Amino acid sequence: MNYENLISIVMPVFNAQAYLEEALESVRRQTWTDWELLVVDDHSTDGSAGLVSEICRKDARIRLLSQTDGVKGAANARNFGTAHANGRYLAFMDADDIWRVDKLVDGKTYEPMEHVVIDVPTQYQGAVMTGLGQRKAILQQMESLGTDRVRLEFRMPSRGLFGYRNQFLTDTHGEGIINQIFDGYDVWAGMIANRSTGSLVSFETGEAVTYGLFNAQQRGTLLVGAGEKVYEGMVIGYTASGEDVDVNVCKTKHLTNTRASGSDDALRLVPISKLSLEGCLEFLAPDELLEVTPENLRIRKQILNHDQRMKAKSKLK
Question: Which residues is 247 bridged to in the sheet?
């Protein structure tokens, strides 16, 4: 067994005797042979475990694991199987899945593709083709729809559509129509250019206040508003320059006995930009992570501490 390119397949099983054998055989028929199948018995009460044991004697690449912690559920079974995996790559399948013989490909990186159909006014055709071209889209067909509209059909990586809808609305002035459908898998199309903007990074933990945000908005565009909780290393906006800028949005105005004309006027903040989940995924820089909670989406640096982040950055130069 070649461990360098070994693919570990984790299959949780619960009372799947009726269809389990066919699922196991679909894995054994794979054209890619460097794999191991970890079948995790999730406290089955039928003959599933016995069936797997028989097939294990025929094929040493298949292993039967039984949970010993008493916790039931597919998620726990997958975690249990993952902990025992030896492969460089990881795949999951259900006990009723039937895989095509080429499901495990020949060591190359594949990714999901989309078939994208766009109806757009002719004058915006160039902007759409340029925008999708930067996202690794390949034009497959172009059809005229009357005198002032055109239909464009592309095939492109699914990841290339992350965050594109806002750009599409801007490029077409809201007059374009876009539809997409999953179109199989293909070889990885390569890196898609990241954003050219830098990040506004909070270097203090606390609550964002109007005074601190007012000073920060002069450096770029904000993603958080007054009263929101922030922490050190959290991305709170972006700047037109390509460099990250550390700002203190928790900074309050110092109280003095001196007053000047107009000094107490209300500070006005520019309305903030809220990113969707897709927008956040597209926004991420290589050194950033996305924190997802039921109520919030937060972007943060991988290394939160400013000094440690600067040391790591200097080592890469």
Answer: 202
Q: What is the pLDDT of residue 31?
A: 83
Tell me the pLDDT tens digit for each residue of 240-252: 888 889 999 888 8
The closest alpha carbon to 69, from 61, 55, 79, 58, belongs to 79
**What pLDDT digit, counting tens, does each position of 82-131 carry?**
999 998 888 999 999 998 887 877 667 788 999 999 999 999 999 999 99
* Torsion angles phi and psi, residue 290, rounded to 5: -110, 125
pTM of the model: 0.59
Three-class HEC string of the chain:
CCHHHCEEEEEEECCCHHHHHHHHHHHHCCCCCCEEEEEEECCCCCCHHHHHHHHHHHCCCEEEEECCCCCCCHHHHHHHHHHCCCCCEEEECCCCCCCCCCCCCCCCCEEEEEEEEEEEEHHHHHHHHHHHHCCCCEEEEEEEECCCEEEEEEEEEHHHHCCHHHHHHHHCCCCCEEEEEEEEEEECCCCCCCCCCEEEEECCCEECCHHHHHHHCCCCEECCCCCCEECCCEEEEEECCCCCEEECCCCCCCCCCCCCCCCCCCCCCCCCCCCCHHHHHHHCCCCEEEEECCCCEEEEECCCCHHHHHHHHHHHC
**Are 64 and 53 in contact, with CB atoms under 8 Å apart?**
yes
Q: Which residue type, as a one-letter code, is found at position 45?
A: T
Q: Which stretch, 94-108, 167-181, 272-286, has highest mean pLDDT?
A: 167-181
